[in-house]
């Protein structure tokens, strides 16, 4: 087989690297795309290429953005003095879907892990300290996953921030033990934000 | 939210239209892509755009190809006088993975369906009749799914081809009742091809 089949096999191999798709479902997806190549495949390729070219991490908070600074950091109405610390951009999106938080974010990009050599520097914790002074932050809300790794990281951040005197809270009621933020419904996230308690 | 978020939401909405992906898994996939935008997202977008531009149905058999005629129809070594009729390009790919069939294909693109107004014309059955004369076909192998729709279509084709005097066979041993071709392992497909019987 040459030509067309090779290119389609390459496309299937790339698609199979997406989370949730294996070789078989990638093959089904590619066939579906080829059948709908004008209505779905071409616009998807174009949008994907566009986002690949323009998307980057916000220099301030780590959110996904097309500019140097993301929409949330660029919006003066979000300078409420509240800073919400999340593990991941998916968690930031989950918080935004809840429409309950009006402040800004700090995306860690993971949790502390000795095994994977992820330390405070990799998570941007020194940058978080800088932001507290520079942006006049009065409250840091630790919205980390209720997993062992998330809570360990939350404790570390709380300890690190203690000398600054900033108020440190964490999402409380509603986050189930062992659960992950991105899997919660919007109502639960709102409730947890309203019932936040001192850490 | 404007700009970046809108474009990313559009991308998620397009991804969610793929079979096997819902809104949540599409969001995860897009975040994964954005994280790997240089190594995965950009090449995937490029390859997808390339295939969207170049892929088309082979004018002879209905296989996916980048030219007017697919690799199999263009290969003189595959002019064995055997023609394998399949419902779908996915089934053709499944047959090819079995490496047992050396002839050419005819892709119906579906099964006869009164409800969905799919008749012999839509499935290219008149074209199949033409090919039997034009290509000197001696045997037509009906490799349709072992479903009610597949077998109804197989019976219709067998009846239609009877006046031509061509030998009509069907995949036999190994195809489980109610099963679909694309889900079989390669060995079962090979065994079924070897044990084919007169229809």
Automatic annotation (TrEMBL), chains A, B:
Keywords, in A-Z order? DNA damage, DNA recombination, DNA repair, Metal-binding, Zinc, Zinc-finger
Among SUPFAM superfamilies, the record links this protein to:
Recombination protein RecR
By its UniProt entry, which PROSITE patterns does this protein fall under?
A: TOPRIM
Sorted alphabetically, the Gene Ontology BP terms of this entry are: DNA recombination; DNA repair
Which Pfam families does this one have? RecR_C (PF21175), RecR_HhH (PF21176), RecR_ZnF (PF02132), Toprim_4 (PF13662)
User: Which stretches of the protein fold into C4-type zinc fingers, per the record?
Assistant: 58-73
Domain named Toprim: which ranges? 81-176
Which Gene Ontology terms cover its molecular function? DNA binding; zinc ion binding
Taxonomically, the superkingdom here is: Bacteria
Note the NCBIfam families from the entry: recR (TIGR00615)
Q: What does this protein do?
A: May play a role in DNA repair. It seems to be involved in an RecBC-independent recombinational process of DNA repair. It may act with RecF and RecO.
Q: Which protein family is named in the record?
A: Belongs to the RecR family.
Which HAMAP family does this chain map to? RecR
Name recorded for this polypeptide: Recombination protein RecR
């Amino acid at each position: 087989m040459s030509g067309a089949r090779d290119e389609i096999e390459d496309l299937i191999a790339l698609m199979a690297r997406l989370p949730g798709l294996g070789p078989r479902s990638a093959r089904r997806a590619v066939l579906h795309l080829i059948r709908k190549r004008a209505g779905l495949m071409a616009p998807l390729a174009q949008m994907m290429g566009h986002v690949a070219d323009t998307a980057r991490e916000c220099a301030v908070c780590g959110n996904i953005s097309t500019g140097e600074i993301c929409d949330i950091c660029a919006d003066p109405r979000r300078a409420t003095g509240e800073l919400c610390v999340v593990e991941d951009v998916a968690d930031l999106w989950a918080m935004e879907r809840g429409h309950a938080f009006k402040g800004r974010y700090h995306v860690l990009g993971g949790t502390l892990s000795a095994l994977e050599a992820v330390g405070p520097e990799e998570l941007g914790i020194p940058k978080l300290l800088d932001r507290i002074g520079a942006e006049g932050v009065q409250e840091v809300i630790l919205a980390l996953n209720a997993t062992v790794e998330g809570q360990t990281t939350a404790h570390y951040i709380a300890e690190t921030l203690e000398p600054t005197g900033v108020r440190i809270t964490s999402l409380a009621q509603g986050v189930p033990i062992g659960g992950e933020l991105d899997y919660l419904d919007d109502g639960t996230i709102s409730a947890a934000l309203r019932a936040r308690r001192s850490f």
